[in-house]
């Protein structure tokens, strides 16, 4: 038996993404959970590389370089591309920090969604986070703005406690 979310896997969530091609751009995302992943669109047809740093709770940073232009010619983009995943977190409140370190050529980071397994049992018991006043953009599970609206989807067939947050 196959369960689906009703979302078109070829399109970004809500046909919306957040894109940057500027070194130094960053964002923080506060969440209460035990894992986090950053997914987006990988545009293979562009040239150059992009280096991005990912960190959870200021722990050692994971740095990834995403090469472009060296993929098979008939695949121009990959949707739901996993840029980062950390499934070894203790259950609780965390802050994910994403920082674009270097951009070569015409590369860009296209973020579609952040997914995490919550440490709370109901949306009513979800913690409320506040902006720490840092200079980077802070996305939290309790804020929504025109730049970052958050949509919660419960995927009961996958896991009854799994919440997916998508940036619109």
TrEMBL record:
What residue spans carry the region label Disordered?
1-21
Composition bias type Polar residues, residue spans? 12-21
Q: Gene3D superfamilies annotated for this entry?
A: Galactose-binding domain-like (2.60.120.260)
For this entry, the protein name equals: Uncharacterized protein
């Amino acid at each position: 038996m196959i369960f689906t979310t009703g979302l078109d896997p070829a399109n970004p969530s809500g046909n919306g993404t957040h894109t940057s091609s500027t070194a130094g751009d960053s964002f923080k995302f506060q969440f209460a959970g035990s894992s986090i992943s950053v997914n987006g669109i990988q545009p293979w047809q562009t040239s150059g590389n992009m280096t991005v740093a990912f960190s959870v709770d200021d722990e050692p940073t994971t740095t990834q370089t995403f090469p472009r232009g060296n993929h098979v010619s008939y695949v121009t983009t990959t949707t739901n591309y996993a840029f980062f995943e950390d499934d070894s977190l203790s259950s609780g409140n965390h802050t994910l920090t994403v920082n674009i370190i270097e951009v070569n050529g015409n590369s860009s980071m296209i973020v579609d969604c952040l997914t995490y397994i919550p440490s709370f049992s109901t949306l009513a018991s979800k913690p409320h986070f506040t902006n720490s006043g840092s200079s980077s953009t802070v996305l939290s599970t309790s804020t929504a703005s025109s730049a970052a609206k958050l949509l919660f989807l419960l995927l009961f067939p996958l896991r009854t406690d799994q919440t997916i947050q998508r940036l619109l």
